[in-house]
Amino acid sequence: MPCFISLGARLRLAALAGALLAGTPARAQTAAPDDAPTLLPEVNVSASGLQLGSSDMATPVSVLEGDELVRRRAATLGETLDGEPGIQSTHFGAGASRPVIRGMDGPRVQVLSDGSELQDASTVSPDHAVVSEPLLARQIEVLRGPSALIHGGGAIGGVVNVLDDKIPTAIPEKGYEGSVELRGASGAREQTGALQLTGGAGHVAVHVEGLARDASDYRVGSGWSGGAAVPGSFNRSDAGSVGLSWIADRGYLGLAYTRQGARYGLPGHNHGFEGCHAHGDHLHCGDDGHDHGGADEPEHGANDVPVVDLRSGRWDLRGELRRPFAGAEALRLRASSTDYRHDEVEDGSIATTFRNKAHDLRVELQHAPLAGWRGVLGVQAMQRRFSAEGEEAYVQPTETRRASLFMLEETQWRQWRFSAALRHERQTVDALESGLRSSLGGSSVALGAVWKFTPGYQLSVSLTHARRMPTAEELYAKGLHMATSTYERGNPALRPEQARSIDFGLRKTAGDTTFAVSLYRNRVKDYIYGRTLDVLDGLQLLQYSQQDASFTGMEAQLRQRLNRYLGVTLFGDLVRAQLAGGAMLARIPAARAGLRLDGAWQGWDGQIEWVQVMRQNRIAEFETATPGYGMLNVGATYNGRFGDGTPWQFYVRAGNLTNRLAWAHTSFIKNAAPLMGRNIVVGMRVPF
């Protein structure tokens, strides 16, 4: 994105503009009468396959859009979603963070770009970034649990679908539309600018967008023995996209190219494990005659911390044809081709290079109602060639091919809505150096029902049997992984996981008191996990193994409307996860509870909340307990208009206002990288 003035100067101009505009009359916002009914917002969920409303889904759905998404957005997808019921993040410094849904992460949580699978290296290791930019997203949907298996039987934790505007689907009414945004944050001295623009005429529309971010090492809460900031927690990233669409009355076909880059540090990286290796089921270090200090070796300083230099280029092809032939409502196409690479740079030279070249194709046919049932039939194919070269090449080059057939059907009878989904997958993973091959397949099925037994109330239940195939890393890993202080060994004999899940939900969607409660139980046969065989100076020898496991938990929130301006919400979640023998699983999120007061008046909209995270002492072997903490967060937005009627929005958010020192139990590097301390975000966004 061209820069004629510095990003810092643009932020100062935006702040000055915000001050001058403080006297501009705000957009009128009519307060509802005291006796007006309150309704939970209803939004369509693209990832549902049939554009169902959130209240028609049999399992809990979170949708971030509009002002709420503007307030919540962070530099990574995990941090953006952290705080939603049942969702936390892996938190690997400032540059890499994936969502953790109901205690599951990695390949059990699938991340999509408008229904098409993202292809990066984030499922391989938590220190690898998700190639998705929240500040350029239009809407983010989260489907918890494995019921969204039309997107993959392996997504037994859930699905995150990031919707964007990179491929236009309609011609702007006035010929153009877009937005410009500038923001800054105090916790890491972050400066970010973003621009989106769509123009079109006749049948052709073009979209361009770009973003640049510069954030230094972030400061932590008061009292940390490691200092005021986390060394090497900086994050500098950029993204740009160009899309072109042909748009007609019955549909569209578009192509977009997206380029993303990032350069971020890896806090807590320890060279003390170099040269460590496995002899049988035991670790050996120092055999090369050098001193390997292990966990006692000093951490890297800010100047010599390893750095990830990431580059990703992706082509997206999307199309939809409505009423293609008799009996069909829509034919949809999603295809992508990704060329991903990141280098891990140590002492100025490339130590390890990760590459991922992948292709994905998805075709859906939505049929007209047949005997009262409407649904979607589809096929999906994926090919992924992954390789790692260098010091930490702990996975040999692999090629993964997956082909799937799926269907989703739903019908409505009186106050009941029923749904059924079926997916069959076949996966082959070839290890290109050893010649080993894993060829597995299986079917997944989900049944759900929603009963709106009285106006404003609904009860839901879903039953799922899903199969997840082991990943290439789980099958063939062999080597030292210093980012997570592990030596990992794969297991070519791994079988598919089989998850049997049940989810109950009760919601009240109308009136001054609204609530949503969800209870779930997920029993996974042959759960794949890293079993610790040996520990030496903090380095763990992990063998990918299988054992039955269970995940049990709940999510709940209740909102009380106090008057036409104010409301108060109680919320919380918890999950308990353990192996069949009673042993706890590692890095399971701690229970949380919170209280939020929200208000709206004229152009102002704000909230103040206290979130209490409990102590996590239900820990796995060789894991340490994590103390609990409480955080005070405050946020507000103001919507106004320029003299010509163009809207603008000013927002401010203060996180961890009391500057509490806190750690994320879900993080591999929790002790080396505590959570961010007090952080004040100020931004201005102008849509046009």
TrEMBL record:
A biological-process GO annotation: siderophore transmembrane transport
Q: Provide any one GO MF term from the record.
A: siderophore uptake transmembrane transporter activity
Name of the molecule in the record? TonB-dependent receptor
Q: Where in the cell is it found?
A: Cell outer membrane
Q: How does it sit in the membrane?
A: Multi-pass membrane protein
Residue ranges of every copy of the TonB-dependent receptor-like beta-barrel domain listed in the record: 319-657
What is the similarity comment for this entry? Answer: Belongs to the TonB-dependent receptor family.
Keyword Transit peptide among record annotations: no
The record's keywords, sorted A to Z, are: Cell outer membrane, Membrane, Receptor, Signal, TonB box, Transmembrane, Transmembrane beta strand, Transport
Where would one find the signal peptide in this protein? Answer: 1-28
User: What would be one Gene Ontology cellular-component term for the protein?
Assistant: cell outer membrane
Name one matching Pfam family. Plug
Phylogenetic placement of the source organism: Bacteria, Pseudomonadati, Pseudomonadota, Betaproteobacteria, Burkholderiales
Q: Where is the TonB-dependent receptor plug domain?
A: 56-159
Concerning InterPro entries, the annotation shows:
Beta-barrel_TonB, Beta-barrel_TonB_sf, Plug_dom, Plug_dom_sf, TonB-dep_rcpt-like
**Is Transport among this UniProt entry's keywords?**
yes
PANTHER family (alphabetical): TONB-DEPENDENT OUTER MEMBRANE RECEPTOR (PTHR30069), TONB-DEPENDENT RECEPTOR NMB0964-RELATED (PTHR30069:SF40)
